[in-house]
Design goal:
10 helices; HTH_AraC; about 260 residues; transcription; DNA-binding; Helix-turn-helix transcriptional regulator; alpha+beta
Length: about 260
């Protein structure tokens, strides 16, 4: 089974003590992350009223919080992160309790072992090779409902989020209620939220590559025919209005281009 059936990507980030220390924006793309945090010392900020919680976990994920999100290191910050495909979310994290930054080190003995090994390596090529072996060990066969949700997600990705639940119902010949139920079970997000998220993130990526395109034109291109609807959806995903976001385009978002 190819690794990308279950895992979307992995990446390594290091910000040294001498580097400019400013919060790193986090965009919720409806894909859960296994975050291995070398220093296990930082702060997570979330919500429009800016709640903050300490991050003292070596291995964590972010669960059920409202954007915008930011992470700030205490001193240096070193992350190795493995991002799941959305249809694999529930397989790994359906038992999560609480919200915010959730320590997951005790959920799987392999995760603590990977944490110990990955930060002993100095070469990023070696780290990614270790991650590939680690992900191969975690592979499993998809259930029929996961296969269906995978097809739904891939259809939404292919269409850049420019689809409706009704269109999905017609395409997959299943009721809206059934699709919504099975999707929420496997992805742990509502189907409509996933569609909006894919659409907005695709729009953000397009705008970051084509800065001269106006937001008005872009919103029309992505199926919005009134600005309040577009701004509302954008805030649901990114936590701020479009102008505020693009006037200070997060450097962390650039890796998604």
């Amino acid at each position: 089974m190819p690794l990308d059936i279950l895992f979307r990507e992995c990446y390594y980030i290091h910000i040294g003590e001498g580097d400019q220390q400013r919060p790193i924006p986090v965009i919720d793309d409806c894909c859960y992350d296994l975050v291995f945090f070398k220093e296990a010392a930082g702060t997570f900020y979330y919500g429009s009223e800016v709640q903050e919680v300490p991050i003292n976990s070596k291995v964590f994920t972010i669960h059920q919080v409202r954007p915008p999100y930011k992470i700030k290191a205490k001193d240096s910050l070193t992350f190795f992160t493995i991002k799941l495909q959305p249809w694999a979310n529930a397989h790994f994290f359906s038992s999560l309790h609480g919200s915010g930054v959730v320590d997951i080190n005790g959920l799987n003995d392999q995760w603590g072992g990977f944490y110990q090994q990955v930060f002993e390596l100095d070469n990023t090529d070696d780290q990614f090779a270790l991650a590939e072996r680690f992900m191969e060990e975690m592979q499993f066969s998809l259930t029929p409902s996961m296969e269906l949700v995978r097809e739904i997600c891939e259809y939404v990705y292919k269409n850049e989020g420019k689809v409706t639940v009704n269109q999905l119902s017609e395409h997959f010949n299943r009721s809206r209620q059934y699709l919504g139920k099975v999707f929420k079970k496997e992805v742990m997000y509502p189907l409509k939220k996933f569609i909006i998220t894919v659409r907005i993130l695709d729009l953000v990526k397009y705008k970051s590559k084509n800065p001269d395109v106006s937001l008005t034109q872009l919103s029309y291109d992505y199926g919005y025919f009134d600005q309040p609807h577009f701004i509302n959806d954008f805030k649901k995903v990114c936590g701020v209005k479009p102008l505020q976001f693009f006037n200070n385009l997060p450097e962390f978002m650039l890796r998604h281009q």
